[in-house]
Amino acid sequence: MSQIEQKIIRKAAAGDRLAFRELVLEHSHAMFRLAWRLTSDESAAEDIVQEAFIKAWRKIGNFRMESSFRSWLHRITVNTAMDYLRRQARRKQFETTEPEFESVQMGTVSPAVDTQIDIREQTEAVMMNLSETERSALLLKHFEGHSIKEIAQIMEMTTGACKQTIFRAVKKMRIALRPLVTA
Amino acid sequence: MRNITDDDLTLLFYGEHDDPALAATVAESAELSARFDALSAELRLADHFVPPHRGDDYGAEVWRRISPRVADERTASPGRVRTWLASFSQPRFSLAGALSFALVAVLAFTLGRNGGQEGITEPLNPVNGAAVALAGIDPNRLLAHSVSGHLEQVNLVLTQFVNTTETSPGEAEYATDMLVANRLYRQAAAAQGKHKLAAFLADLEPLLIELAYEAQSGSTATRERMQQEVRNGLLFRVRVMNKQLDKPQISV
Question: Do B46 and A147 count as a contact with CB atoms less than 8 A apart?
């Protein structure tokens, strides 16, 4: 964390709204990308980003400079997204009368017509079929480049459990995506 | 040699394996290399999981949406009655910050003008050093960004000014700081050829001067006249200009 960022964080923690605005401008895009990858829903991701920043504003006085501010924000974003996904799951439970079948099941991705495989959609479906924990851990590793130790802190689990979660996610993803590689 | 699992290869792919010799071991073995390549190809497919694009102004948009709630959170503490003076004790503005922003803007502009001149071999003084550190910064965006922050403060101050009847010594001091910052930004805007912005900042100055030197000592009538002036359009203009600054496509 740069000295400038530390200074801005200190000012924001002291109640300086403009300093906090700087942090919002700096981190909004990355938080949106993370929130979208966690939910695969554009408007939900936007809501999550806003909610996460409000939470960050409330808690910024508790932030300790020893850890990375980015990791701290990611932790809030992941928790906010998890809350959103759980609410969605509960709502679905009440709303759904017929059993739901996912359009793409693990290990059943088919190459379809050779030249018309929509890799993006298939990848998205595979990601969304991972459990929330597996998806979060994998995204934080693969896209955000956090170390396993950082991910463990963000997700409040042990390093060992975090590793195993990533391994599980990778295995599931590989099985599901293999047909696309060989196609 | 111990058995190398796919989990080992996953850690190697992500640069997290404890054993520094593992990469060499994999490279030396055709079988391990093939397994590692297959794993890499499959994991790289995840790169297709691309979020929808958000424009450059997305951060500003997020701020616009959350700022009312951010403001509420700060005022939601017990004892909401705040005087004009108490509001100044909030560390929301500092002259040093404004000065440094303005300095950066001016430096960036200077840098922009001097950019491309080769053969300059003068030793660096601290100011030149700062200028060098700014290489690559778009002076227009930097100025717009800095003035936007300044106008947000002006907006806050004016909003509070029109809604209070009391005055305090802190009010004058605060307005003086803002006046100094406003002048620096005006000069930076003029130097960059942002004449509309410079003219707007120039329009703000008389009011800031009054706030700095007359509001405290002036009569109630003076204060009311100034409040009327702010309500009659200045506050609106500050907000409009601030919005325009957040949209780089609108020329200021």
Answer: no
